[in-house]
Amino acid sequence: MSTPLKKVVDDQLDALGMASEQLDADDAKYVAAGVKNVLSSLRARRVWENHVGAIFTHKQMLEATNWTKQNLSQAVKDSRVLRLTAADGTSGYWSGGLTDTAPHVPIAGLKEVLKAWTSADAQSWTVASWMSTEQPELDGRTPRTALVDGDYPLVVTLAWRMAERLSA
Which pLDDT tens digit goes with each residue over 71-123? Predict the structure, then answer.
């Protein structure tokens, strides 16, 4: 095991009260596989965040909105917030669906856009990507930007059209 990784592992073993235990070759392989998996997930998250913007954890979303867990759960059910679920089952929240000023609230028109995409049974990652991608029908703006600009009817209509194409 490389020295920096060994130090991290040793520190974690110490924190768990297992500092006196020695890792054998099988233990090292197990740890290395876990680290590789974590780094792969981190790389994928960074690629997505470069495209769609920050992906908030549950705690970050609660802090950004000043909501309770119940409020957040209801906002997801009501299509006011877009929850993103990773391949490993962990969830995050698309920050682009919130206003830029604190306390952050869902941007106007987002609920109607998310409901349009629900009709096509679209994956949440697809929706976040579409919302973050410049669209020629919106004069090169992203749907998120167009919503912030107040062009709700145009974005909602476009979302329904795109959802219909996807489900066809």
Answer: 999 999 999 999 999 888 889 999 999 999 999 999 999 999 999 998 888 89
Asked if the peptide bond before residue 106 counts as cis, ω within 30 degrees of 0, the response is: no
- The closest of 139, 113, 140, 138 to 128, measured between CA atoms, is 113
Between CA 95 and CA 57 the distance in angstroms is 10
pLDDT in tens, 143-161: 999 999 999 999 999 999 9
- What's the longest Cα–Cα distance across the chain? 64
